[in-house]
Amino acid sequence: MTKYVIRGGKPLYGAVEISGAKNAAVAILPAALLVDGVCRIENVPQISDVTLILNILQELGADVRTINRTTVEIDCSHIRNAMVPDALARKIRASYYFIGAMLGRFGSAQVALPGGCDFGGRPIDLHIKGFASMGADVDVKGGIISAQAAGGHMVGTTVYMDMSSVGATMNVMLAAVLAEGTTVIENAAKEPHIVDLANFLNSMGASIMGAGTDVIKIRGVASLSGGSYSIIPDQIEAGTYMAAVTATGGEVLIKNVIPKHLECITAKLVEMGAEVEELDDAVLVRRSRPLERTNIKTLPYPGFPTDMQPQVAACLCLAQGTSVLTEGVWDNRYRYVDEFRRMGAQIQVDGKIAVIEGVPQLTGAAVEACDLRAGAALVIAGLAAQGTTEISQVRHIERGYEDIVRKLSGIGADIRVVVTPDEVKAAQVG
Ligand code: EPU
User: Fold this and answer.
1) How far is the C-alpha of 1 from the C-alpha of 7, rounded, in Å?
2) CA dist., res. 242 & res. 406, Å (int)
3) Are residues 193 and 257 in the same domain?
4) Roughly how many angstroms between the first and final C-alpha of the chain, as a whole number?
5) What is the pLDDT of residues 384-406, one digit of tens each?
6) Same domain assignment for residues 100 and 242
7) What is the pTM of this model?
8) Is 373 in the pocket of ligand 1 (CB under 6 A)?
C-alpha cells in the first residue's frame, strides 16, 4: 500500500505551478473523437484519470502520441465504433463523455455505467434526457448504456436542463456539434471547463455560442478538422494550494492560474484570514493572522465550488468559533468527517449541513482518503496538524492532483511517499 506521511505544523513558503484542469481534460480528450485529423492538446495534467481516458481512446483504436510531459497528439480518423471497455469505463466518472462523443461521431454508442467518487446518488438521467430529445433511443441494461440515433445521426433541438449539470451540459454539447440543425441548451452549467470544451471544439471548426452563460447554442457543422489547443489551468488544484497556505500560514505564489476563476474561492479564504493578491496569471496567498470562522454554501459556478468543500473544511477546523458548511450540490459529501475527527476535529453533520467548532490544534493520526477532494483535505489537515499524519488510499488523490508530493515539498512541506513492503514485493512479482 502507498501512503503519504506528513510531519505537520510548518508554514508553507515559495512558489508552485498549477497543472491543466482535470475536469476540462477528461471532456476535451474524448471530444477528439469528433475530429477528423490530428488534435494536439497541450497543458494536459499528468493524473491517473487522464491516463484512463487516453487508455479508452487507444482501446477504441485512436492513435495517441505523447509529445512531451504535458502534450499529446490524438488522431481518431480511423477509429472504429466499438463498446467502451467495461473495466475502464467503470473506474471513472468522465467515461460518460464517450456516450456524447460517439453519438455525435457514429450515431450510436455503448458505454458501461460510469464510476467515480461516491457522493450518494450520481444519476445520469439529464444526460439521457438530452440525448433522447435529440432523437436517440437510449437504453440502460445490465450496467451498459446503449444509445442509437434514429436515422443514424443526432438532430438539434432545445434541451432544458432541470438542474445545472456540468456533465450533462458537456455531453449534450458533444452530441450536438456534428448534429443536423441547431441545439439550444437552456439552464446550462457555466463552469470554466464548459467554456474550455466549447473553445476547444470551436478551434477545431465547431459553432458554439454562449458557453459560460446559461444558454448555449450549438449550430451543427459537417465536420471538425485537426488543430492545437491548450487546456486551462485547474481551478480546484489552485484552490487546494490556496487552502493549504490558509491552513498552515506562510506565503506562496501560485502560478499558471486564471485569477478570475478563483474569485469564488478567494472571497471565502479572505473572510477566513488569508490575504490574496491577484497578478496576471498567478495569485500570491499569505496568512499571518489567526484563522476566522465563516459560513459557506457550495453552489454551481460562479458560486463556491463543491470540489473545494472538504479542503476549506480543513481550514475551518482550526478557525476560532463555529462555522456552518452547506453542501448545495451533492447529497452526501461529508464521508471524510470521521477521518477529520481522528485528528481532533469537532464536526457535526446533519444531512447537507456540517457544523464545525474550531479547535486550537489538530493532531496527526492514521487516516484514509475516501475520495479525491477528501484526500486533498486530509493532506491539508495533516500539513496544519501537530505531529505525524499517515494517509492511506492515496490513489484517490492521484486521480486528480499531478505530483502533489513534489509540489508540496517544493514549498517546504515535510511530506513523503511510503510504499509498504507488500506492494514492493507484488510489483516485483507482477
Ligand atoms: N444530476 C442529476 N442528474 C444528472 C446529472 C446530475 O440529478 O443526470 C445532479 C447530481 O446528482 C448533482 C448535480 O446534478 O446533484 C450536479 O451534478 P453534475 O452533473 O454537475 O456533476 P458531474 O458532471 O457528475 C462534475 C465534476 C465533479 C463536480 C461536479 C459539480 C467531472 C468529471 N466531475 O461532476 O468533480 O463535483 O461536476 O461541479 O467533471 C471532482 O473533481 O472532485 C468532482 C467530483
Assistant:
1) 19
2) 16
3) no
4) 15
5) 999 999 999 999 999 999 999 99
6) no
7) 0.96
8) yes
